[in-house]
């Protein structure tokens, strides 16, 4: 079994802020959003967590090993450096999809994303050390087979982007609907999925489903770990084995 700790990061009352007193320049919003993501990635990352940018106004972090005090410090650090604040809601479950659903529901109960009075909510109880194990997380690192030869060096850049995004859309939906997993595009042709305990046959099914749906061929490395960094690094090593052996699914 896995025990995934997810933290939903939500910008407080950001929609109104983007148009107050007048619509703000789009380049400034894009710069703010990408810098905020970079800082959160580093803040959670130094504690071995991962953050995924998803919609930028809402981000999803995998935070096994990041405790309550860490969350409070991260929230404070953002408040001190940005014109916006963040709410953080944490939940834990064997299923990553359930953990995020619980974290979301708790934040929604506290107030709307556009409620002026809901600022810097800090919700949920991160795992205590004695509740954690070395294989609480299962992470899968998917990659498009020979994306460079098939797409990047062959098609115009926008057509390549469409192929990769279609594969991502197909995989994220399949992994969520069939396996309670949360999959995130992380750049290039790479997708990282936070999974419950899934076996090799389930990953083969996912790869077949994406090929049937979009014609894009994937491979995947999978590993377990106590933190996102541990499991994620193991998954990268397993993916290297796929490359060396020409296989499509490898477990560390
Ligand atoms: N975020 C992230 N991106 C990566 C990683 N490895 C590769 N990429 C991205 O993926 C792009 C393609 O690189 P590869 O996946 O190595 O190349 P490929 O042509 O698909 O070749 P094979 O994966 O060996 O089939 C790179 O330009 C990067 O943008 C990784 O570990 N993390």
From TrEMBL:
* Biological role: Catalyzes the formation of 2-amino-5-formylamino-6-ribofuranosylamino-4(3H)-pyrimidinone ribonucleotide monophosphate and inorganic phosphate from GTP. Also has an independent pyrophosphate phosphohydrolase activity.
Query: EC number(s) of the enzyme?
Result: 3.5.4.29
This entry's Gene Ontology molecular function terms read:
GTP binding; GTP cyclohydrolase IIa activity
Q: Which InterPro entries does the entry link to?
A: GTP_CycHdrlase_3, Nucleotide_cyclase, Rev_trsase/Diguanyl_cyclase
- Please name the NCBIfam families in this protein's record: PRK02240.1 (NF002587)
Q: One of this protein's Pfam families, by short name?
A: GCH_III
**Key words of the record:** GTP-binding, Hydrolase, Nucleotide-binding
Q: Which family does it belong to?
A: Belongs to the archaeal-type GTP cyclohydrolase family.
Q: Under which name does UniProt file this protein?
A: GTP cyclohydrolase III
User: Please, which domain of life does this record's source organism belong to?
Assistant: Archaea
Q: Which reaction does it catalyse?
A: GTP + 3 H2O = 2-amino-5-formylamino-6-(5-phospho-D-ribosylamino)pyrimidin-4(3H)-one + 2 phosphate + 2 H(+)
Species source reads: Salarchaeum japonicum
